[in-house]
Amino acid sequence: MTTESFETFEELGLNEDILKAVLEMGFTKPSPIQAQGIPAVMQGSDVIGQAQTGTGKTAAFGIPVLERIDVSSNAVQALILCPTRELAVQVSEELGRLAKYMRGVRIEAIYGGDSIDRQIRSLKKGVHIVVGTPGRVMDHMERKTLKFNEVRMMVLDEADEMLDMGFREDIESILADMPEDRQTILFSATMSKPIMSITKRFLNDPVLIKVVRNELTNQNIEQVYFEVKPQAKVEVMTRLIDMHHIKSLLVFCNTKRKVDEIVEDLQLRGYASEGIHGDLRQQQRSNVMSKFKAGVTTILVATDVAARGIDVSGLDGVINYDIPMDEEYYVHRIGRTGRAGMSGKAFSLVARDEKYRLKSIEGYTKVKIEKGVIPSYEDIVGVRKARFVETIAALIKDSEDEGLYADVLEMLHHSGFTTEQIVGAMAKQIMGVQKNEYADGNLAWEERRGDRREGSVDRYAKTDRREGGSRFERGGERRDGGSRFGGDRGGDRFGKGERREGGRDAGGERRPSAPEAGMTRLFLSLGRKDHIMPKDIVGAIAGEANIPGKTIGAIDIYDKFTFVDVPERDARAVLRAMDGNTIKGKPVQIDIAK
Predict the structure, then answer these.
(1) CA-to-CA distance for 209 and 40, rounded, in angstroms?
(2) What are the residue ranges of helices labelled H in 281-376?
(3) Using an 8 Å Cβ cutoff, are 534 and 557 in contact?
């Protein structure tokens, strides 16, 4: 099955009502994932689709789902799982648009942060398609308010992201509760070992559809990186915004705390910016997105997880304030701009200790990212002067009430000011350029000879990427075949007290060996007596600190405390994010292990 076989949606043999909606939405030619995925799903096959956000995969599974709905039955006939509430809302809205001309199709999004009582009332009335997050779907399963006995289709959207967030056990429980004769469709940006494990267990002779990386990397995107001192990143970012006249921008960083810091700094500088991350309530998120889509806010700052649910088009550019810790995230990020044949810009601000991540991204994408020169303060003043002149010239040409303000210049002359002084003051106020501590400084870091620190990090990055991926990307599997995440597979060295090489403490228990190079060991004040498992720790840290769960290393659970290894670069972020937080409802104290 090839993309060339279906040049138009008409050739796919869609229901007339769906086809009418598709054409009204402005789609004429199926994307590669749609041209291959829609026929395979409509034929009833289980399907694995490897595709990222922005390739049109929602329609690839959404259209066949709608095709198979029987509106004469009030039962749930399709379940779509998404990693975040933003993506769940986005998918349900997209399905709603596709079902615009289909009478009687009811779609419900269920996710945490929304009233569960309202969701229960809606489910009792009868819903055909449920789009939800794993945690909230499990809540409804336990309450018996969501039944799957008539489910015909099950979709896992962004499956890799759900596993990174610690939802593996929930996903497996949900799949195990489904009718055996259901059709299962799985979409994932990566085909990691945990993904393949789920497909082998729950999918029946699936068809594999893959959008190759060349199709994922948009050729319309200008990719440039800048070597920047960490404390000067906001200054450099605003210079790039001014220099390139970026009016619609998405800024990515790695932690929720950093989102808030950047937004505050940008707002103080006069830029219309808002942030979106996991701590915002749903109403706050909706308000932020409404202002951004309406153009009231021109800069949206987001974490990777929160951005998974953002559906925006026509972005002028993307800025990687922090370099992502996963190469796939970079592809997801830059794919937000340069869509539909338009050009886009992807700028990356690289601190010295992030340089090795950039090299990994270049190796992964097979694209050379050019090094850029940071615009100087004089460059920005020059650019703003030129735009000021253009603005004033346009106002003079289009002014219809010129007489109302004709005497202002004369009034200022009577006050003793020259024309040059008046124009200069007006330009300063309108241009908004303020000289600060960065104006005359060098904002780029400089290479140091014999820089051992960067070299050592580079070696760490390369060591963990042998044989098809890092030790984390191989799904957390132990070398002896056991699972790092525990369960009933036997020999859970982290959850059941078995220890690695090392001495013994005063109580006679074996101490774990020293953490691997590049990792920092953290101490958590919860242990086996608190009934926590490795998956609880991974889920909490990954969710709160916004780091991929697969980057978390060894976990040693004792009776009253736990050791967990995290990458050195993320240790402080984890400490800040988990400060005052809970795991399984229990307050936890966390610190660097002594």
Answers:
(1) 9
(2) 282-294, 304-307, 327-334, 355-365
(3) yes
Query: For the structural domain made of 470-592, what CATH number should be given?
Result: 3.30.70.330
**What are 296-339's pLDDT values in tens digits?**
999 999 988 777 666 676 788 999 999 987 777 888 788 788 76
492 in helix, strand or coil?
coil
Q: Which of 205, 168, 163 is nearest to 188 (CA)?
A: 163
Name beta bridge partners: 109. 131
pLDDT, tens digit, for every residue of 332-370? 788 788 765 577 899 999 988 888 888 888 888 888 899
The mean pLDDT of the chain is: 79
Cβ-based neighbour number of residue 592 at 10 Å: 12
Cβ atoms of 551 and 165 closer than 8 Å: no
Q: How far is CA 266 from the centre of its chain?
A: 21
The phi, psi pair for 106, rounded to 5°, reads -115, 130
Taking 60 as the threshold, does the pLDDT of residue 32 lie above it? yes
pLDDT tens digits along 387-416: 777 777 777 677 666 666 667 777 777 778
For residue range 213-265, what is the model confidence (pLDDT) as tens digits? 444 445 678 899 999 988 899 999 999 998 888 989 999 998 888 999 999 99
Judge whether 3-215 and 218-374 match in fold. Answer: yes
Quote the Cα angle for 298-53-324, to 5°. Answer: 70
For residue 369, what are the contacts with CB-CB under 8 A and spacing of at least 6? 223, 224, 225, 348, 358, 361, 362
What class is the 3-215 domain?
A: alpha beta
Question: How far is residue 281's CA from residue 577's CA, in Å, rounded to a whole number?
Answer: 17
Rounded to 10 degrees, what is the CA torsion of 185, 190, 191, 195?
-60
Domain spans, the chain: 3-215, 218-374, 377-431, 470-592
142-168 residue pLDDT tens: 999 999 999 999 999 988 888 877 888
**CATH C-level class of 218-374:** alpha beta
Distance between CA atoms of 123 and 140, rounded to whole angstroms? 10
The pTM assigned to this predicted structure is 0.51
What stretch of H or E contains 249? strand 249-252
